[in-house]
Amino acid sequence: MTISVPATSANLGPGFDTLGLAVDLRNRVEFHPSKFFSVSIKGEGENNPRLKGNNLFISIFNEHYSRLTKNKQNFKFTFYNQIPMSRGLGSSSAVIVSAIASAHEAAGIRVSKRRILNHALVYESHPDNITPAVMGGFNAATIEKNKVFSQKKHLPDYLKAVVVIPNKQMNTSKSRTVLPKSYSKENAVYNLSHTALTVAAFFNEDWEMLKLAAQDRFHQKARMKTLPELFSVQKVAYESGALMSTLSGSGSTFFSLVYDDDSAMIANRMKQKFPDFGVKVLDFDNDGLIIER
Ligand SMILES: Nc1ncnc2c1ncn2[C@@H]1O[C@H](COP(=O)(O)OP(=O)(O)O)[C@@H](O)[C@H]1O
Ligand SMILES: N[C@@H](CCOP(=O)(O)O)C(=O)O
After folding, report:
1. Which of 37, 86, 99, 243 gives 20 to 30 Å between its CA and that of 254?
2. Strand, helix or coil at 216?
3. Are 186 and 100 within one domain?
4. Are residues 206 and 182 in the same domain?
């Protein structure tokens, strides 16, 4: 059995804990029952000994597998990881979603994507990464009574993501501690109106509106100050024609949405200006969680 889940870019400027989209960079896991438990990792995390044992995936998988089957069974897991960890591309969401889906598959129980998403909320309290990780595309999401309610927009092929990935890791829970404890009414209204406009621009495919809409007063500045080159990354992205350019999740990656025709030029500019950072041009992902039986 193979399960794969895409990377995600959350917040998209003003939509803190609300907006997110999926990009075509996937973590894939293959597994089968085995006499002995084993973990093999290829790609991101392959040199991290902490991931070879009871990592986040394994603990969530075990929790769900024993809840569903009341059995103890060993599995051999092989992970093919493309999503860099703690860089704001939703690696933890991908792991959470794939562990829950894998446990259901291993137990022979078919569940809806919506059910998997609601289980994922137990491990990640904000829905902006887990929703596109499960559903694909652009999503606006909220939580009511411990359930995720969301709306998805399919993203067209003529748009691409240019992601600039610094070496510096930014742990999400740590990065949430640098945020203000409260916001003025003026700033709250600012983010509310810009989030509404961002959502409308995505749904109406008014891409030229995104630069204005995707401005934020809640979280980006405080986080970007911990890696000030990110201000230059955003400036170069906009000078080069990016349609929107925002801190990806809690960082450190910077996400730009661009026209396909501009993507190679913008990526090359980024590579020239920021030679120490990784730069990738990615398709958007409209599938989310994929289960191959
Ligand atoms: N492939 C993976 N396998 C196991 N655990 C992972 C993997 N990717 C991420 N994690 C877990 O998620 C944590 C990173 O989560 P977080 O700081 O929220 O970063 P991100 O922005 O990438 O989601 C890692 O420290 C690790 O515990
Ligand atoms: N809304 C969250 C998003 C975190 O995304 P991640 O990819 O950095 O885990 C936040 O801003 O903290």
Report:
1. 99
2. coil
3. no
4. yes
